[in-house]
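Collaborator request log, item 7. Partner lab (contact: R.S.) asked for a structural prediction of Amino acid permease to inform their binding assays.
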Amino acid sequence: MVFGLARRDLRPRVPLRPGEGQKHHLTSLEGLAALSLDALSSVAYGPESIVLALVAAGTGALTATFPVTLAIVFLLAVLVVSYGQVIAVHPDGGGAYAVAKKDLGPTAGLLAAASLVVDYVLTVAVSLTAGADALASAFPALARDKLLVCLIGLALLTAVNLRGVAESARVLMLPTVLFIVAILGIVAVGLLRAHPAATVGKDLSFPPHESLGVLLLLKAFSSGCSALTGVEAIANAVPTFRAPRVERAQRTELMLGALLGMMLVGLALLIRRDHVAPRGDVTVLAQLTAGAYGTGWPYYATNLVVMLVLGLAANTSFGGLPVLMSLLARDNRLPHLFGLRAERPVYRYGVLTLALLAALLLAATGADTHRLIPLFAIGVFIGFTLSQLGLVLHWAREKPDRWRHRALINGTGALLTTLAGVILLTTKFLAGAWVVVLAVPLLMLLFSRVERYYTAVGEELGLGRIPGPPDRRTASLVIVPLGEVSKLARHAVSAALSLGDEVVVVAVHADPARQQALREAWDRWNPGVRLDLIDSPHRSLVQPIVDYVQRAAEGGRQIAVLIPEVEPRHRRYEILQNQRGLLLATVLRARTDVVVCMLPYRLGV
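Returned to partner:
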């Protein structure tokens, strides 16, 4: 104590930036809200995919929904345990691309990256179409405009992400809780009722055209595996959790698995008990909602909550794909512009690319959820399999305690996800899975060609090597294209005199009278700079100047071309200015090796 004052720590305290500090990281519940919507919302289309596959054998085959769902939940349990291992081994984020690149080699990294790109694009498309289905179930008049609804939703998501509005776990907590309560409420209330409270949708007939055999059960299983999408998201984002990060992330993964498993099993029980078959203009989930809650306000509220959560699930791709593309750009596997961020922390080129690809996919499929799902799950299972295989090799190399037990868990996961992926590919190939089979290798080829280009450029530029001494300074010439004597000419000549040893102004005119007028005005002004007039009988402006510059550069002299450009104060007036300067600069850069400079002259109007 000195003069009655307590001792203070004199070390400077640096304020934390947004996102730093423990309070800005996620708890387990916040992580469930922020990272699990993609997986939890899959109950809106996963069980329906099983039903649509089984109904090929008639409505009596729908009793097989429950055992097929149990097989899917078993696979879910294996994945949850396996991803718990991924979280422990890769606490810096266990994304399939990072794991495959590190543990399986560059080719596997390319495969993981390509499958993730496909997965992210399809996540947006499937979530939006499933959300549109939920909205149309509540408001059938919108069923005809599903594509328009999806494109409007995509435009809103794109605009929000271009603005850089970050997701907040606290904001996502409310819709997540409402969704979980609504779905578990459907299961609980539906099972308590002796029969459905109400029936919605139009009757459809399903004459059996296929027997309920192993092949049909495998089709139903592969279709229902779309409910497992998003299980890996928590392992991808371990650094976003509060300390202890690994334990919190593993706890969140277990919570996700338990909730998703309960939802899937509960909905399957209702489908089997009430013989829920597809009906016109409504989803299977909407039928179960009406059966539990009736057709009053809870029915409409539940469908709106489902639509909202599916929209938020689509938004997760806008956070994931641009970051993945930035990593690929950093690894020289995509153009470097995908690694550029705007003033806000947003990879805008990645956001726009995702929006464009999703829009094309929606338009090509007519916003049909069931045409998209076969494409959707294949990319997911490629990522699942690569993550598990990478971990098996990690255990084999490191050999920690009980490494064989851990490798067995991940090896089982890899075997099951490979089996599910092969089943999905073979049973859904003609239904659209061939698109993914074509897209993934093409993306891998794109990544490898871009990487090869950057490698060749690096060799030619000598990146990483000390270059020789610079060339000795040579006399320079600055060429200024002008058309009239004005303040613009004064601005350009003044700038040119400060840049080079010699300045020449070049003017191109087709009219001899205008040439003479310009010569007289130039002599009266007398700026001390030579004026060269070029005759152009064909009224061409660009080519005569390009020829002049090429002749001036023949002796190896350092040439700079300074092109003055008028910039109006308001952008709406830009169209009123001619763009010959930009055209000339483009041609000069394409045909010569001279330095091309644009000199703005900003107007006050």
